């Protein structure tokens, strides 16, 4: 007896699911879990049930609460892991205001329909050995296609809010990053101007210092020369006086 393949969430599935939960906020209106499930099924092409989608979000919350980064980051790049944790934190914060209220649980008929649908698939798989294989396979395919189908107006193209939300988010992030780069360039330009002004100021100060130094040196030289000339003049006067005194003395000696 063949068992239905258990559907597992990949990192891509997690991101699609978490983006849609953040976008629609099913904690405000419980019925939105159905819409989220339809989007996830359409994007991932995996027949997740409403219960599976909701339980998986709670499971991710549990990993986040335990700080189990190994499982949170399993099979994911660093960028995907960072986005996944950021989405979980935003969803958890968003849900707190609604979880404190009386949030309705899954309706019994929703759970019953989900279980019956899975039982139908199991029965169809089991009957392939005893009944017409082609007809049974067609019925199973029909059930799976019904699970994958997303309601849309006739003749209108299918719109994916999750992908649209992702594109808008990426565009917004690119715009923010561009503004940050432009601001960083302006800051760098201002820093360069500031450095250039400081260098010019330093050069001006050096020039002024050099001019002052040259002036003081020239002034000192002039003072030294002036003193030398004064000393030389005094020497000459002293020599002249001595000569005159000597002449006077000689005349006196002759008389």
The number of strands is 0
Strand and helix order: HHHHHHHH
Helix amount, in percent?
A: over 70%
State the secondary-structure class.
Answer: mainly alpha
Overall outline: rod-shaped
Q: List the quaternary state of the chains.
A: single chain
Beta content comes to under 5%
Distance between the termini: 166 Å
Cα-based radius of gyration, to the nearest Å: 47 Å
User: Biggest β-sheet, characterized?
Assistant: none
**Count of DSSP helices?**
8
List low-pLDDT spans: 102-159
Keywords: Coiled coil
Coiled coil: 180-228
Structure description:
By secondary structure, the chain is an all-alpha fold. It has a domain at 11-158. The protein has 8 helices and no strands. The radius of gyration is 47 Å and the shape is rod-shaped. The protein is 78% helix and 0% strand. The longest helix is centred in the last third of the chain and has 94 residues, at 161-254. Mean pLDDT is 75; it is low at 102-159. Helix 1 packs antiparallel against helix 2 (32-44), helix 1 runs parallel beside helix 5 and helix 6 packs antiparallel against helix 7 (133-148). Keywords: Coiled coil. Residues 180-228 form a coiled coil.
